[in-house]
């Protein structure tokens, strides 16, 4: 009868994971020691601690300095020269679209509108009279055409007079907050005289520069965090809206613009910010820091395949807390040796004692 061999690996309390006892025994059924057939020398499995590989995205934190401007911002200038007769605002006032800010002397323009309106009415009456007598043949077609053209010219003259009158009033082009002005009633202005500024501060546009290395990793709609230099913490969030179409050949950077919500009106246009972005650049295997080994040809890990170890080259991509992102041919779920690496060699059988070692 052929004898059977049984084996057991047990950890020794207080010892390292390499201290194991292999107990061999002969099962019942052997009549004598001489009946045990000789066996070839067996390679004992090396006890090791393993950990499975998982994959995760590589996260890169990018910080930049950004400069802000209002979502809408203009400096107001008059269309024409004239004398200021009324100033309707003070610095910091909120205005709505179309609300008058400054009025220039417009007496001549109002008279011009009235005159154009009278001329239009006269032209309409003449044309109407010609129309009524058209059937009698007393009015030629040429005279009728001239009267029709006169009506159109009078209408255009009236519209031009209204435009000239509108130019005597400077109005808000959009809802916003007004800046400081140096104008007072009686001041003379020209088209080159700045009246004031108006900013829509409900949202800010923050522009910052990003190294060309990250070109293609930034997309419109991506979230960012911004912080003022006063508090240092990122208490505001934004969304990327625009990415420049070219890279600056001098700085090797490209411009990115983000929109930051400011409905609480705590920020001001022109402020600088610390911009923080979290970028995701590909997925890589994650191995424990203790699993990474170094040899003459670079870094590697001991991977376990069919209960045998093999040397797998690994390039460090990013260091994490207690783990390392590597560029390596390590399938997700494959185990790597974390304890006992000093005794490894290519093709060595190993026994996983992770659970036993954890119980010590």
From TrEMBL:
CusB-like beta-barrel domain ranges (all copies): 206-276
Keyword field: Coiled coil
Sequence ranges assigned to domain Multidrug resistance protein MdtA-like barrel-sandwich hybrid in this UniProt record: 73-193
Pfam entry (one): BSH_RND
UniProt xrefs under InterPro entries: Beta-barrel_RND_2, MdtA-like_BSH, RND_pump_MFP
Coiled coil (UniProt feature): 113-164
Family: Belongs to the membrane fusion protein (MFP) (TC 8.A.1) family.
Descriptive protein name: Efflux RND transporter periplasmic adaptor subunit
